[in-house]
Design a protein that fits this description.
The chain has helices at 7-16, 27-37, 61-64, 96-99, 133-141, 195-198, 206-210, 212-221, 233-244, 247-250, 258-264, 282-304, 329-353, 419-430, 433-436, 444-452; strands spanning 49-54, 81-83, 90-92, 106-108, 153-156, 309-312, 360-365, 369-370, 382-383, 389-393, 400-402, 404-405, 412-414. It is of the alpha/beta class. The protein has two domains: 1-43 and 201-245, no CATH class; 48-200 and 253-452, 3-Layer(aba) Sandwich (Alkaline Phosphatase, subunit A), CATH 3.40.720. β12 and β13 (412-414) form a beta hairpin. 52% of the residues are buried.
């Protein structure tokens, strides 16, 4: 908490406030860095944001958005299909709400993430030279919004909205990895009610907040202790504007309309007592249901306040082997399908009602797909040949299916796309890539991504 009752405490608290979890750098440091970089870090961003909903574990392409009901039993969707709003296009039957919103979606049926390994591609991958994709964006756009102070790159996990959930999964990759870019560009990872969010709150009496001049006068008395601010009046004003502007409020769902929270809430859809405890991933199924909707709501709130890239993941839950850890395909989709269907449809309705659907692009995908054939236990195994991919908003062309898979849903049959295409699509949404290609001084790895990779054809 920030308190001015003790000079030493006030110095320590101030250095904590505004750090926003970005590698220990305080907000004034980051603002000074932006000032040094000048236009290179501020003039090439679009006014758009991207939410990458990472379906960790590898969702099945067949039971999600390419059901293949004309294929033989053992290949076609074990959950059946549902007709979408688009003539001749069906989804897996777990997605009735999204089916009726298919005119607002772009489904890529020929996307392959590259391999069948459990990891965290496309968030962190060799394609992004080992850096979080949001960190690549933040390296160009800046780590924080200069006006609001909100982090430009955020990663959300179940504990960001529900402290009763498990810690985030890290055994398959580090979401906070920045490669060679430096810790200043790492994603801010909040926890529900955690100290990082508490440290963003300014704890002063209301009558003292009412008098901004008095507050700044008091701060001047501690200028010698606040050595990081010495001689940096403009930086000081920007830093405190961020704090006084209520950065923490964007991370606080109690500030949201309760009716909106209820519309997003996925917890009532899959109750813990309805999930079989024989699966070792029982807690993952529970956490997914409890947190997914609220995570997307929090992501919307952050983008609304100026955050550019938000990764959302509910931990490792989309593994579908039908082994000791994971449920069968049919049972597992009953746990995972309804929350995803509900949360994404609620997000689409909410962003449109707020006029944000053209500003925020939602991307939903996993690190891989699933084998074309059901295994002997009723599950599907790892498969890198096809990965489900859904996009919406951000000004892309929706109401379409791009590319087709083979008859068994195992590989692209037309218009093959890979991880580099998805990364380029995201960066072209967030940045004016054409202008950036003429800029000198960017890290070579960043320049390579911007110059080499091409977006998915047909989205723009």
């Amino acid at each position: 908490m920030l308190s001015f009752s003790n000079p030493l405490q006030s110095r320590r608290s101030f250095l904590t406030v505004g750090s926003l979890g970005l590698g220990g750098l305080c907000l004034p440091d980051l603002l000074k860095a932006r000032a040094r970089l000048g236009a290179q870090e501020s003039d090439f961003s679009t006014d758009k944001s991207v939410i990458l909903l990472f379906l960790h574990g590898g969702p099945s392409q067949t039971e999600t958005f390419d059901p293949k009901m004309e294929a033989p039993a053992g290949i076609r969707s074990v959950t059946g299909e549902v007709q979408t709003k688009l003539p001749g296009v069906t989804f897996g039957s777990s997605f009735p709400k999204l089916a009726q919103m298919a005119d607002r979606l772009a489904i890529i049926r020929s996307f392959a993430s590259g391999n069948g390994n459990h990891d965290i591609k496309p968030v962190v991958d060799s394609t992004t030279f080992g850096a979080n994709l949001g960190s690549v964006y933040a390296r160009v756009a800046g780590a924080n919004d200069p006006q609001s102070g909100i982090p430009k790159n955020v990663a959300l996990f179940p504990r960001s909205v529900d402290e009763s959930t498990q810690k985030r999964t890290s055994q398959f990759g580090k979401f906070e990895s920045t490669g060679s870019l430096g810790k200043a560009y790492a994603p801010f990872i909040p926890g529900a009610g955690g100290p990082a969010q508490e440290d963003m709150k300014l704890q002063l009496a209301a009558d003292r907040l009412d008098d901004r001049k008095s507050l700044l006068t008091q701060l001047d008395q501690y200028k010698r202790q606040l050595d990081s601010l010495a001689g940096q009046d403009k930086v000081r004003d920007q830093a405190f504007s961020a704090i006084l502007g209520g950065v923490a409020n964007a991370f606080d769902l109690t500030k949201e309309d309760p009716e909106t929270v209820a519309r997003y809430d996925t917890a009532p859809l899959v109750r813990p007592d309805a999930i079989s405890r024989k699966w070792n991933n029982y807690n993952n199924y529970v956490d997914n249901a409890k947190s997914l909707g609220k995570l997307l709501l929090l992501a919307r709130r952050l983008c609304e306040q100026g955050c550019g890239f938000v990764t959302v993941s509910t931990n490792f839950v989309w593994d579908m082997h039908a082994d000791v850890n994971n449920a069968t395909m049919t049972e597992g989709m009953s746990y995972m399908g309804p929350p995803l269907d509900h949360a994404v449809s609620a997000f689409l309705e909410d962003t449109r009602s707020r006029g944000l659907d053209e500003k925020i692009m939602l991307v939903a995908t996993g690190e891989m797909g699933r084998t074309p054939k059901i295994n002997a236990k009723g599950g599907r195994d790892h498969w890198g040949g096809i990965t489900p991919l859904l996009l919406s908003g951000g000004g892309i062309n929706t109401g379409q299916v791009i590319g087709q898979s083979t008859k068994d849903g195992g590989r692209p049959a037309s218009s093959p796309f890979g991880n580099s295409h998805l990364i380029a699509t995201i960066l072209h949404t967030l940045l004016d890539v054409g202008e950036l290609r003429t800029v000198t001084g960017l890290p070579s790895d960043v320049s390579q991504i911007l110059s080499r990779y091409q977006p998915i054809n047909g989205l723009h």
